[in-house]
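Figure caption, in words: inputs first, then the predicted bound structure.
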Amino acid sequence: MRKMEGPVVVLTGAGVSAESGVPTFRGPEGLWRTFRPEDLATPEAFARDPVLVWEWYDWRRQRIANCRPNPAHRVLAEMEAALPDFTLITQNVDGLHQAAGSRRVLELHGNIWRVRCTRCGRVGEDRRVPLPEIPPRCACGGLLRPDVVWFGEPLPPAVLEEAWEAAARCRWMLVVGTSALVQPAASLPVVAHRNGARLIEVNVSDTPLTPLADEVLRGPAGEVLPRWWAACARL
Ligand code: BJW
Ligand code: ZN
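Bound structure (BJW present):
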């Protein structure tokens, strides 16, 4: 345990929302156990069968709508308020960081509560669950899609650039609840580590990042993170 000084970056993944009841992707109860990513989370899948893809997203939106932030989300919002140089980067699309009070969230993979028109490009929020029409359509008549990043698609360039910069200059990086398998997000902690940041991993199990970590907090994020932050505050 060391006193936190200098820029802090936190990268979160599905594991941070697991205790809120949001299913993760990989692992024994992960979404990919039941669904094949190539059938649902690719632009090709959407082009092939937009109704199937939307039904899956509508189901997930209904699940997430019933989920509330957990102590891990809340402690990250506290850290943002307490630390002068703090960046929260998430791969999650569920919006639970914002619901917990985090004000600035770099969403690498988009947000499940936004829709984007495949014809005119208009982006809007739509929180209705279930959606009244599947697939939903834009005022221009075009097909709407979830405003999330699928495999093979580029991440939002401005968000990714800000994330790279924050990762490259931070002194501390916490990596919370991600399997660290999906690129380019998984490279952010590697960049931080290479530039001399202290890497802290919070996860219930090992990941490819574990050998790089300076500190490993093994356990559920909602339990481990508040305890760790309370200990930091005492230093
Ligand atoms: C807990 C816990 C608790 C559980 N407490 N912990 C280089 C090498 C190889 C491949 C590639 C590469 N570059 C690009 C690729 C291809 C691809 C990729 O990475 N593939 C790999 C899988 C092999 N990447 C892409 O395609 C990306 N695009 C791209 O690179 O574009 C380039 C390009 C440029 C220019 C033009 C065109 C293209 C896009 C990736 C998009 C990922 N999208 C998804 C779906 C989002 C929408 C949706 O939600 O439906 O994002 S996939 C899914 O995985 C989702 C997640 O954000 C992402 C990461 O998952 P995450 O968060 O790590 O979750 P899990 O489930 O994997 O892990 C949970 C973890 O929590 C586990 O470790 C548990 O142990 C832990 N845990 N309970 C603490 N209580
Ligand atoms: Zn439109």
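The beta strands are 8-12, 86-90, 105-107, 110-117, 123-125, 144-148, 172-176, 198-203, 215-218.
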